[in-house]
């Protein structure tokens, strides 16, 4: 009996100590409550799950983001702020309202604002991959790639062959792949390395740290060529992103990517080089080849800015930028996102914004690659519909795009989903383009997608069977853990 009593006392102390750690370690109270519930209701299993996937790495930096020496960083910071003042002195009136958003990103994320950019919206893999192959074929100095999913299928092998060809021409090729998302790529890594391509997995999954390392993934999709041309967005390297006959797709994949030229590419290069130095254990130094300056010519006139965040950042910068953007909306917000499991902050902002008279429209998958995530999406519909938010489900296939349009003058395209994982656990990157033309183009694409979608009727939604409503509420309880 004494041993049983000691065991019970030990377990009670263990539960208390883990719960205290969760309270101190978890920024989100909703997420903390979910983990505490898990630890209490699932003896030992809940504790294992928390230490495997719940530890807050934001308090335990995986690596330093400083690429510049402090003295040089101070000089660069001074130039960046002067450039920001110049841009907003001459910016169109419709963009002045975003000055606080630009400052937030600059102050928190050290991400400069630039007005010399050319941008091109790439809808689906059919548009992205020809543009990527052409840009890589024209590379003169270096090619940098960073991908969450890189499949060694038809399009993946075709891209690998092109990279090998460029390496043989003397072009430096550096490639980061996520060890979880691109696990099928390992067979091709040796061949690429033998051809002179430098390849490294990001945060390599090792047996002892398997569960924990699997949880913190690099979800970025980045290509930087010669420091002049960049690509980012939702499209990974896989045949399923190309909607053509005979590729074996079970459904249509709808996604969005962005091609950029100009100074915004320097920010993308910065993100890549910091990630590279972490996973390669090298110290790649910034120079004129990585950050070329063309004083007498501009790629374009688009105003743009990049925001990146992950467990390495001091705060959830992407979450903060989205919250600020939503709060600045005056007329309309158009959201496309495949994994819509919003934090309480995002949810409250959207509800308040809609109740204030701003039109808010949300497009999510009708068909998803995860039934559980789809249920988590549905669990937020009731509140949103009651507030007047229009909710649409895409029926043509699977919508994987992560885009946001604010008031016809701000377009956001990136890799981040609107869920806890993207805001807290994954390494993500978004581009903010303060431009009416690109916003109009992205808005047009949104409304075109609505033609292949079904609008959720609020009255019919409220009349669903009780067991479905209960299921929604149950899934909502665990949504912070998805």
Features:
alpha/beta, 482 residues, 15-stranded mixed β-sheet, 17 strands, 3 domains, two-stranded parallel sheet, single chain, Endonuclease, Chain A
Can you tell me about this structure?
The chain is of the alpha/beta class and 482 residues long. It has three domains: 2-55; 70-84 and 116-302, 2-Layer Sandwich (Endonuclease, Chain A); 317-481, Endonuclease Chain A (Endonuclease, Chain A). 45% of the residues lie in helices and 19% in strands. It contains 19 helices and 17 strands. The strands form two sheets. The protein has a 15-stranded mixed β-sheet with strand order 4-3-2-5-6-8-1-9-16-15-14-10-11-12-17, with helices on both faces. β10, α13 (344-355) and β11 (359-365) form a beta-alpha-beta unit. The longest helix is centred in the first third of the chain and has 24 residues, at 2-25. The radius of gyration is 23 Å and the shape is globular.
- Treating each run of at least 4 consecutive H or I residues as one helix, how many helices? 19
- Name the beta content range: 15-25%
Share of helical residues: 40-55%
Query: Which sequence of strands runs across the widest sheet?
Result: 4-3-2-5-6-8-1-9-16-15-14-10-11-12-17
Radius of gyration: 23 Å
Distance between the termini: 41 Å
The CATH class of the largest domain, by name, is Alpha Beta
Unreliable residue runs: 208-213
Judged by helices, strands and strand pairing, the structural class is alpha/beta
CATH topology of the largest domain, what is it called? Endonuclease, Chain A
* Whole-number tally of structural domains: 3
How many β strands by DSSP? 17
Q: Specify the overall morphology.
A: globular
